[in-house]
Amino acid sequence: MNQVLLKTKELSVGYSIKSGNKVLLENLELSLQAGELVCFMGPNGIGKSTFIRTIAGLHPPLKGETIISGNTPLEQSIAVVLTDKILPNQMRVYDLITFGRYPYLSWNIKLTATDKAAIDKAISLTGIDDMLDQKIGELSDGQLQLVMITRALAQECPILLLDEPTAHLDLNNRVEIMNLLRALAHQSNKAILIATHELDLVLQTADRIWLATRDKKILSGIPEDLVLDDSFDKIFQLKGFDLKTGKIKHHLHQLQKIKLEGEGSTYLWTKNALERCGYEVTESGSVIIKIKLDPTPTWIVNSHSYPTIESMIQALKIVVN
Amino acid sequence: MIAGNKKQHKLFLQGLLILAFLLNLYLGSVSIPLVEILKVLSFQEPDNAIWGKIVLDFRLSKATTCVLGGAALSISGLQMQTLFRNPLAGPDVLGLSSGASLAVSLVLMSGATGFTLFLNPGPLGVAIAASIGSLVVMMAVLGISTKVKSSTSLLIVGLMIGAATSSIVSVLQFMSGADQQQAFLIWTFGSVGGLNWNEISILAILLLIGTLGAVLSIKSLNAWLLGDHYATNLGINLKSAKLRIILTTCLMTGAVTAFCGPIAFVGIAVPHITKLFLNTSEHKVLIPWVAIMGATLLLLCDIIAQLPGSAHVLPINAITALIGAPIVIWIILRGNKVIS
User: Using CA atoms, how far apart are residues A196 and A204, in angstroms rounded to an integer?
Assistant: First the structure.
């Protein structure tokens, strides 16, 4: 059993407004463990950002409390990456990262050798060496996100909370950041919580998922369990996406069934193409497609060879109709 | 390359300050050779004893007031712009100058309204009144700041206080006599001359306290560039930092406004010019250089004010507005690029 770093006790999250409290999530009993990457998911507007701010001590809870293990001050226990817009466009990337050391510095913000070592370590983890002299305003969204993560790492806190760190990024950057955070959790034994919408990425990287439900609760479980017990389908009300196969559902409108013979990724993508075009791929299919990989991938239908999947499907349409 | 450039810029700014200071001492209705001025400054007897008196009691006091006032207003402006995350924030925007104006108008024009606050308002009486005026506004703004969370709301509150006080000032002006109106009007023009060394030392002490407060706030000011949430996460106590920043700003603005009148645009313009020159958002660098830049700007404004001829001196507020207004327009045109 891993060490619990953060625990919520009867925590209720939301806003105080004039007509009473607007409760977003209530009576939460959750714990965050060292060495675990937890992804926090839920529909838009359910209170993910408010929850993150509340357990980070940046927003008052409506009820209950967040307990942090150990006696270190909050700013040395929890580092955050938020969606807040930051101002210093003219600031150098390196200078922004030094802000991560502020919890350890006195008023004259003089960096010691320890501070510099922590900054260098954070930089080497995210690999942003080549950006250090750039201005904040010159960075792309993905680069800025990496810089903000580096800044949070320089804070050297056992707990890391990130709100939508992969929003607005392309697939490559998203995967890079998720892999980085996962590696950090496992190698540096940090507890990392990410609020995110990236269902597909989360299912493949998260150690645990917290799922905010529409009745103001948070379900906790490993991805596979939550997929199989239909929690995701209920909460996200998925339309046309089959989570259990991880694919978009296709309406198989073609009458002909196809038997596909082949292997590896070529087989998978050929199947994908056929299903996308409405053909059912099954063992009892009447049309047989063979995939020959040597010397180059070739698709054989009715003893005709086709060099690409596209040409094969074109021919298929004529053959079967 | 960048570091070298910055060093050159800093040397240039230092040189400019010294040059402006000497030029400020040199210019005046009586022409005194520069060598003689340097003699007076190094405690030697000048060829003409009168020259020594003119330089020490008139010109040096005026130049010193420029240095102190410019530095105080500029540090105040820098703190306000960072605190409110708003490039157009300045000490005058908070309503402090308006509070001071109201107090001064009460003193200078109260005779006409039927009740007499001060029988014979001397310069010190005006100064004390202006300080109390800023203090009252400061307390009001502080009180409201605990109720409104957003800095933008606080700015609007400052503007509203300014509007309310200037309407009261208008009523007072309407009811008062010509002499009193003139005395008040001259005060609103702003003046860096006419302070005695006693007043200057008070100004210097208040500036010192204010600067000390600002220096102690360097960490908070820097962290504030990332917003309230990040600043809190970095261990900044927002409440006490906010209080310290507002208090030091009011102290410095109040003192300058009391002794020199409501000098506009210096507080808002200087931080932007400095950031543009030194290309940094780091307050550890900005605070000293904003002070130097502010001192230089007010010295230059005073020099320009003396240009038309030896007998007449233009109101300093006209000159600061002439330089400051285009800068404010430029800030608006550049948009977000110059926010910090």
Answer: 13
Q: Tell me if A59 sits within 8 A of A252, measured CB to CB.
A: no
Tell me if chain A has a CB within 8 Å of the CB of B234. Answer: yes
Helices marked H in B279-315 — which ranges?
283-306
Q: Closest to A58 (Cβ–Cβ): which among B232, B282, B336?
A: B232
pTM of the model: 0.82
The two tokens of residue B258 are 């009391």
SS3 A281: strand
Q: Is B284 on the interface with A (CB under 8 A)?
A: yes
User: pLDDT tens across B123-177, in order?
Assistant: 566 666 777 777 788 778 767 766 776 666 777 887 888 888 888 888 888 887 7
Q: Do A80 and B339 count as a contact with CB atoms less than 8 A apart?
A: no
Please tell me the distance from the alpha carbon of residue B279 to that of residue A191, in angstroms, as a whole number. Answer: 38
DSSP for A98-145 reads HGGGGGG--TT----HHHHHHHHHHHHHHT-GGGTTSBGGGS-HHHHH
Quick one: pLDDT at residue B340? 42
Q: Dump pLDDT digits (tens) for B86-106.
A: 777 777 777 777 887 788 777
Which of B120, B77, B101 has its CA nearest to residue B188?
Answer: B101
- The nearest alpha carbon in chain A to B227 belongs to A86
Q: Are B203 and B65 in contact (CB under 8 A)?
A: yes
Confidence band, pLDDT 50/70/90 cuts, at residue A7 = very high
pLDDT computed for residue B74 by the predictor = 95
Q: What is the Cα–Cα distance from A240 to A259, expressed in whole angstroms?
A: 25
**Percent of chain B topping pLDDT 70:** 88
| Residue type, position B27, single letter | L
Cα separation values, B339 from A100, A156, B304, Å: 22, 30, 29
> Is A90 part of the contact surface with chain B (CB cutoff 8 Å)?
yes
Residues of B in contact with A84 (CB under 8 A): 226-227, 229-230
CA distance A158 to chain B (A): 14
Cis peptide before A297 (omega within 30 of 0): no
- pLDDT given at position A132: 93
What's residue B4's pLDDT?
A: 58
